[in-house]
Amino acid sequence: GYTLTMSRRTLQTDKMATFTPVIFFLLLAASVPFTVSQRPNPCYAPEQFEATAFFQDTYRTISHDRTARVAYDATNLRKHIVQKIETKQGDISNITILQFYKEGWEYEINYAEEECKKEHLRSKFTYHSVVTNASWQGDLNLGSSGVSGGYVEIEAWHAIHTNSDGSTRWDGTFTRTGCIPITTNIVYPDGHVLGETLVDVRLGISDPKIFEIDHELCPP
């Protein structure tokens, strides 16, 4: 199966604009003519980066749009996610999610409420790269090629994987230079859709201490 950067959880979030970046990019890809050039080899994204992520999670016709700040560390198989939520008192607070895939544990920390939950991860680490057996759909320009430096060339990839549960459809876009992931969209056999858009991607982990666990707050 496939797993996005976030685990499949429903968290309340701060009020976002009704504009959904995931849908925007998918519509853009559908409406802008592709540039057909020499078929590229599937690329592999940088092993460590930080980004702002917009998520769309639809389940049983209910859509949940979320935003978070994500630190992605494929070198050590771990992720750090900070998401804004609305507290019981109506205030806005941060939820920190730490995922350690080597150890198989996830921590959900609410520092304002001094709460920490620990549970087993239900999925394997997902690498930001073109998935197995994906086919290149062509290139498109994000922005305008009529302006010097006003566009980024994007590669579009598509894959369908079938097993006993049915067919899972994966679509992803990456920058042609550097293989920076832009969008991922996954449609599961039951119609469940997970979408992700990354913006403001910065290479590397600015502060490795973000992966340290507060053992006074979190269970061993």
Topology as H/E string? HEEEEEEEEEEE
Residue windows where pLDDT falls under 50 for at least 5 positions: 1-24, 26-34
- Name the structural class: mainly beta
State the helicity in percent bands.
under 10%
Mean pLDDT: 81
Secondary structure tally: strands: 11
How many alpha or pi helices? 1
Described by strand count, sense and barrel closure, the largest sheet is:
11 strands, antiparallel
Side by side, the strands of the main sheet go: 6-5-4-3-2-1-11-10-9-8-7
Identify the notable features of this structure and list them briefly.
220 residues; mainly beta; eleven-stranded antiparallel β-sheet; 5% helix; globular; disordered N terminus
Can you walk through the features of this model?
With 220 residues, this protein is mostly beta strands. It contains one helix and eleven strands; from the N terminus they run αβββββββββββ. The chain has one helix at residues 21-31, and strands at 48-59, 62-73, 78-86, 92-100, 105-110, 115-120, 135-143, 151-163, 166-175, 181-187, 193-203. An eleven-stranded antiparallel beta sheet has the order 6-5-4-3-2-1-11-10-9-8-7, with helices on one face. The longest helix is centred in the first third of the chain and has 11 residues, at 21-31.
